[in-house]
Structure to design on (858 residues):
């Protein structure tokens, strides 16, 4: 047999994901050669604190604080960016591609906003830029969409893209906890960060929706195109009422390719408890895709975490290694060859669940109903749930309406003295 | 832009899957060029009945009854084998590979038994042999395992690999039907064939387990290595008792990579109703995989049918097209670089559910218990379910035991006069 081929890689960052990548590469040390026909060697890791980092690796001489040690090393053929955040990650990635290196990343913030620009730089340089880990962590999804499902017109995707919020909603649903208590539990268990904004406001999920919608619809969708709404206003009461209606409340990312443009949004939603996504609990993620040939398909697993995310990153590294050996880097780059408009959120049609406290007297229900009617919102169901002294709690389920018409109705209802409070408005699948 | 590159393909067969491939290629006609950088043209289709086939295609001149029209046409770079069965498919595929063509197939019978030989022929000729459609139809699974999850030691896979039997079990579970009635319904609805043996005896699922286990464990598993047991003996009573215990009965394919060798088997099994596979109903398939990095992951969708299967076949065709354009055919071939022994089924450990009718008198239970005990079968639970005159129905749940010890106990129990009938023995996950 010929001499063993060694492919050298550099890594930017040694946080949770970087440590995972380090561990997974180590655990695959024996398998790489027969699996790929080459061995992968981690030559340099860029870190902020050399002392702290040195303690995490077998050979402390591989850590450096100088990016140029990686960018200017001609032996390094693949750079793994796992530092996160937009800058300096963006500049580093572009510099590496321009230096003729292939790049693998787990950075959803960056790909969701700058994917087009980075993929163009990769193409210009004839290099790979792979980002499987940026959506749904360890779950294989980008490659399945770009390759296995390439023969489909994918019309819709829907998924649970954030494990923290799914954990919170699961606790609220299974144990009747309120949002604040469930969030504190998630923080105690290490699922939620001290500042949980990106998770609970749907921003993290929105980034993943943008990246996946771009791959699924072959048209660029950026994070800025995604409407996001979080779960902070969901109460245990909403979840209880949803259950009574045979539904579960999930924070869903939804994107559709419609003749009027692409819809992309993240918000809490009532879905039928028999839907496969309804049974995805705890911190698990899942993505449900519909294509004209494959029909419905779902991908389920760990959307975050050290080793699951590293599974996806190292899978990408192995793919680049194969491409290097076969001299076909850049084989699958940007697949956004369409240019579809983005539908404004007001034009999207949704069904709504509305819970409100209204004056408990003759004529109030009729007034509420007429506000809906005057704003082109058709009511599918109206239920009086309970009476609290002077006020009654009612739940209205609407038919499918344009969101702007619904907003108009809500604004008027919000200003009416007979309505004490609009407690919740949640979309229904 | 340079002249449009056209890649010509030939197809062997125009049955259900072939017709689906024809339709999907047509529906992708506009998208191919921007997606792949080339157009795919179906130049010839090998059929048995030219008249019948001609009615299915726009241009009847593309159908032929002569294999040589495809094998000897130097313009044809990809051959799609969707005729099914072992011969002449095997000889045709080998002839095409030796003629320097890439091959895509949906043929599970062939890949499960002859995968190694065909992949060796592909390698010898530097060509692609892709078979994504041979496992779980439209569900992306072979490529995810070989690429996305390549950084894992996959330790276990478990799945619902056959839609017909899952439909039958779903009807038995949801509507209390007996096996025979559910099978007839499946036949009336076109889910089951007139001779349902391959489905209901677990052979079809066994072939898929062999193919997927080979990819997952990087060691060749053939259909002959897979223990198979069907669902014909499952009764509505078993399903009812399983439900009472919080379980669902599914026909599961299970494969494990253990230090003593690879286990591969298909049989009915009780699984916890909260397990993600328990909620996979009707004719859907799903595959659950466990890896050391990714942890648990599941893939769900349509495991059969014209268009879902064609989705996988055309996805493979598109991948070959990209490989042709990048001059890297053969990039990912056989990944079985390990040679693990296959564990004999008697050495596999399982828990069992046993339902039997025994004489309803003092001492019988003790005798039954001692037979189990004498054969190293430890009992986890023993329940008396009902009394029918002279006989009592009991259910025994065992702890994990070696299958051969369990078989020994069953043989002795079967010969005891105080036991009227051993009604069911079903494994428990």
């Amino acid at each position: 047999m010929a001499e063993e081929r060694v492919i050298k890689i550099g890594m930017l960052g040694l946080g949770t994901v970087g440590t995972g990548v380090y561990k997974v590469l180590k655990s695959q040390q024996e398998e790489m050669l027969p699996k790929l026909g080459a061995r992968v060697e981690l030559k340099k890791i860029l870190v902020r604190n050399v002392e702290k980092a040195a303690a995490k690796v077998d050979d402390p001489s591989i850590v450096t604080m100088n990016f140029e040690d990686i960018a200017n090393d001609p032996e390094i053929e693949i750079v793994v960016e796992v530092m996160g955040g937009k800058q300096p990650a963006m500049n580093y990635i572009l510099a590496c591609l321009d230096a003729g290196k292939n790049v693998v990343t787990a950075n959803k913030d960056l790909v969701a906003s700058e994917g087009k620009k980075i993929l163009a730089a990769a193409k210009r340089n004839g290099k790979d830029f792979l980002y499987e880990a940026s959506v749904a962590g360890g779950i294989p999804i980008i490659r399945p969409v770009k390759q296995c499902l390439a023969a489909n017109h994918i019309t819709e995707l829907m998924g649970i893209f954030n494990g923290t919020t799914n954990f919170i909603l699961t606790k609220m649903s299974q144990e009747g906890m309120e949002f604040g208590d469930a969030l504190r539990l998630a923080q105690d268990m290490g699922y939620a960060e001290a500042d949980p904004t990106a998770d609970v406001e749907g921003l993290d999920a929105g980034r993943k929706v943008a990246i996946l919608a771009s791959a699924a619809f072959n048209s660029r969708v950026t994070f800025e195109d995604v409407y996001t709404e979080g779960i902070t206003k969901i109460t245990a009461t909403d979840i209880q009422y949803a259950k009574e209606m045979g539904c579960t409340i999930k924070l869903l990312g939804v994107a559709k390719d419609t003749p009027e443009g692409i819809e992309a949004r993240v918000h809490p939603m009532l879905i039928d408890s028999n839907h496969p996504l309804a049974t995805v609990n705890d911190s698990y993620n899942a993505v449900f895709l519909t294509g004209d040939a494959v029909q419905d398909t779902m991908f389920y697993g760990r959307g975050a975490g050290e080793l699951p995310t590293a599974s996806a990153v190292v899978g990408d590294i192995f793919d680049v290694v194969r491409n290097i050996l076969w001299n076909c880097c850049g084989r699958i780059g940007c697949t956004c060859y369409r240019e579809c408009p983005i539908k404004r959120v007001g034009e999207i049609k949704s069904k709504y669940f509305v819970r409100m406290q209204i004056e408990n007297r003759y004529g109030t229900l009729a007034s509420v109903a007429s506000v809906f009617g005057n704003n082109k919102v058709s009511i599918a169901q109206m239920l009086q749930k309970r009476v609290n002294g002077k006020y009654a709690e009612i739940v209205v389920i609407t038919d499918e309406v344009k969101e702007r018409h619904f907003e108009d109705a809500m604004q008027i209802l919000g200003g009416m003295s007979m309505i004490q409070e609009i407690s919740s408005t949640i979309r229904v699948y």
